[in-house]
């Protein structure tokens, strides 16, 4: 079992769609499908149920997803420590995976120009860890969203995005120009696992406890709305799958794009990344 194959599986399990996972991995879909089938054969278990709409995890697949995430994180940590001991210059950046953010695109281009020979490693995390592995020591700096528990971290705001409610297009509320929190009090929401950062959880729950399907990844959020008619929050202006809309939510603080790093970290590469991020998001 190769780490590369596990990364392929995690991508499919988080996207719940082979096409989107292939795009994320910069692969064509046939070799990705073959790799997953080979992994299932090696393990002797069905990991994903395929359908025209996408894919769903089996119980065995859910177990493998948790174990694969832990194993890949350990491998990344090992690689970084060995590289540091060998004197190789590198920077590990944690992201939540918003590939459509023009600010992040400008940041990547500007940082490459500033450090053309630097090995930049990207660690994409799901929505259960808003620090993107920073608090666990898996990354050097994080490009993420607030709010979250800032204990031991330094945070710099880059942009504030208004937030709306994700609804199915045929939902009676989808035709509204604006919604109020009280109108959503009796609806089922997608929610994060109980051990998720409580500050983060409270914000995306609209400031009160919610009940509904537990999700970890962006695509899980969107698909549970599409399939179950649940609701949840998302930044405005993001591209959505067909059949979904976002309606602005009144009285909801904006979602803030931030760069975060360990408090007291004097690494010049981290400092350079922060400076470049601030400039990129201003332009």
- Placed side by side, the strands forming the largest sheet appear as 4-3-5-10-6
- Helix-strand makeup class: alpha+beta
Instruction: Please count the beta strands (DSSP E, at least 2 residues each).
Output: 10
Helical proportion, percent range: 25-40%
Give the termini separation. 44 Å
Q: Radius of gyration, Cα only, in angstroms?
A: 19 Å
Oligomerization state = single chain
Order of helices and strands: HHHEEHEHEEEEHHEEEH
Describe this structure as you would to a colleague.
The protein is an alpha+beta fold. It has helices spanning 3-15, 18-25, 29-43, 59-85, 102-114, 198-204, 218-228, 268-282, and strands spanning 48-51, 54-57, 90-95, 119-124, 141-146, 153-161, 163-168, 232-235, 244-248, 255-262. The chain starts with a helix and ends with a helix.
Write the layout of secondary structure elements.
Layout: H1 3-15, H2 18-25, H3 29-43, E1 48-51, E2 54-57, H4 59-85, E3 90-95, H5 102-114, E4 119-124, E5 141-146, E6 153-161, E7 163-168, H6 198-204, H7 218-228, E8 232-235, E9 244-248, E10 255-262, H8 268-282
Parallel strand pairs: 3-4, 3-5
Antiparallel strand pairs: 1-2, 5-10, 6-10, 7-8, 7-9
């Amino acid at each position: 079992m190769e780490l590369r194959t596990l990364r392929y599986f995690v991508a499919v399990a988080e996207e719940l769609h082979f096409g989107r996972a292939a795009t994320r991995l910069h692969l064509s879909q046939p070799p990705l499908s073959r790799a997953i089938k080979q992994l299932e054969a090696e393990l002797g278990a069905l990991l994903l149920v395929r359908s025209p709409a996408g894919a769903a995890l089996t119980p065995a697949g859910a177990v493998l997803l948790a174990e694969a995430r832990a194993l890949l994180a350990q491998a990344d940590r090992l690689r970084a420590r060995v590289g540091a001991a060998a004197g190789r210059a590198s920077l590990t950046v944690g992201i939540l995976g918003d590939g459509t953010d023009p600010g992040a695109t400008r940041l990547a281009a500007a940082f490459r120009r500033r450090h053309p020979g630097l090995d930049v490693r990207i660690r994409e995390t799901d929505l259960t860890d808003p620090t993107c592995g920073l608090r666990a020591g898996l990354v050097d700096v994080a490009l993420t969203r607030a709010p979250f528990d800032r204990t031991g971290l330094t945070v710099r705001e880059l942009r504030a995005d208004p937030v709306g409610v994700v609804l199915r297009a045929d939902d009676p509320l989808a035709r509204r120009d604006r919604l109020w929190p009280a109108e959503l009090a009796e609806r089922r929401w997608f929610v994060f696992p109980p051990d998720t950062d409580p500050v983060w959880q409270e914000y995306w729950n609209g400031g009160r406890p919610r009940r509904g399907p537990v999700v970890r990844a962006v695509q899980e959020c969107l698909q549970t709305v599409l399939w179950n008619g649940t609701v949840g929050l998302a930044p405005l202006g993001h591209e959505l799958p067909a059949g979904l809309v976002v309606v602005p939510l009144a009285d909801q603080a904006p979602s803030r794009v931030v760069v975060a790093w360990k408090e007291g970290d004097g690494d010049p590469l981290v400092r350079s990344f922060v400076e470049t991020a601030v400039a990129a998001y201003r332009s």
